[in-house]
Amino acid sequence: MSTPRYFIGLMTGTSLDGVDATIVDFANTKPRLVAAHGHPLPDELRDALLRLQAPSDNELHLAQLVANKLADVYADAVVALLAKAGLQARDIVAIGNHGQTVRHRPDLGFTLQLGNHARLAELTGITVVSDFRSRDIAAGGQGAPLVPAFHQAIFGDTTRHRVIVNIGGIANLTDLPQSGAVTGFDTGPGNVLIDMWIQRHLGERFDAGGAWGASGTVIPDLLAWLLAEPYFGQPAPKSTGRDLFDIGWLEAQLTGRNDSPADIQATLTALTADSIVSAIKQAGSTVADVYLCGGGAHNPLMMARIAAGLPGIRVATTEQLGVDPDWVEAYAFAWLAERCLARKPANLPAVTGASGLRVLGAIWPA
């Protein structure tokens, strides 16, 4: 039996709904998900991260304090994950930590994911790999999405044309044909607008089970107006985030309207679903299977609308491929850390637009 090679993956996404943490064993050709843990973000930290999504007074000072606090929360998540798995810090080769995106401007040549990674290495005693996006952007790419190379390695099939869709705060797609180039891009908003709208009106962090959206009715003219956003028509490679799809964008679209908040929620859910369906159709007529992951995979209203828009195509979650949809992205960052330490490229230039393959990540040794 092979000696285990454990890596930890940490992910906090656009939805700011907590830290996803996984342990993955890379001892064999096929990596194995060993353990997973969801760790909460303190309310005050989440609020500070939301404030940093837009320019503000003394934001450099606040960003550094938030980075320190994030490191503390990441370290707590690692401790809890190790306890769940019955492992020690010395058993882990490295942590792959995405950090929390507060700016993503590849058009200006930069991206910023907060997290004091040196502090995390000190707190855990484990080597940390992070800052995965910057090298791709330096090579002329979008720096996102990063997961298509991972999707290809874990979910690719030479007999079936598959599409993997992650519906986090922002939704991204990976097109996995039976042969040929893998492509992918951010399709647009995932849960980010849905979450912001329900928090404003009901004080909830997310629309559990899509229930509030299901209580409303889609507003056709509003949906058409939202889908007219130029981002949706841009060719790939492309990526997006809260820099575009934030509450200010939504308020601008709703100017002069007096629709029911529940109907707007239903329409925002349809916006995410329909923009995903449109993106999948660009992958061609041979698509056989679509597998969803991320928080949106738990929204039956969204799942049903996506399936209805793709007749003849199987729509399921990555659970059918052996990976719980909640843990796919954290799994991916363990994979990215392993690739970095092995000095293996992890970007796909056809996805990001980078000038070539690059090793991604910066290393903070234990």
Describe this structure as you would to a colleague.
With 366 residues, the protein is α/β, with parallel strands linked by helices. The chain folds into two domains: 6-144 and 327-364, Nucleotidyltransferase, domain 5; 148-321, Nucleotidyltransferase, domain 5 (2-Layer Sandwich). 38% of the residues lie in helices and 20% in strands. It has helices spanning 43-51, 59-85, 117-124, 134-138, 148-155, 192-202, 211-215, 220-227, 230-233, 247-253, 261-281, 300-308, 328-341, 349-352; strands at residues 6-11, 19-25, 32-39, 92-97, 100-105, 110-114, 128-130, 162-167, 170-176, 183-189, 289-293, 314-317, 362-364. Strands 3-2-1-4-7-13 form a six-stranded mixed sheet. Strands 10-9-8-11-12 form a five-stranded mixed sheet, with helices on both faces.
Question: Keywords for this structure?
Answer:
14 helices; alpha/beta; 5-stranded mixed β-sheet; about 375 residues; Nucleotidyltransferase, domain 5; 6-stranded mixed β-sheet; 2 domains
Condensed summary:
The chain is of the alpha/beta class and 366 residues long. The protein is 38% helix and 20% strand.
Question: Which SSEs are present, and which pair or pack?
Answer:
Elements: E1 6-11, E2 19-25, E3 32-39, H1 43-51, H2 59-85, E4 92-97, E5 100-105, E6 110-114, H3 117-124, E7 128-130, H4 134-138, H5 148-155, E8 162-167, E9 170-176, E10 183-189, H6 192-202, H7 211-215, H8 220-227, H9 230-233, H10 247-253, H11 261-281, E11 289-293, H12 300-308, E12 314-317, H13 328-341, H14 349-352, E13 362-364
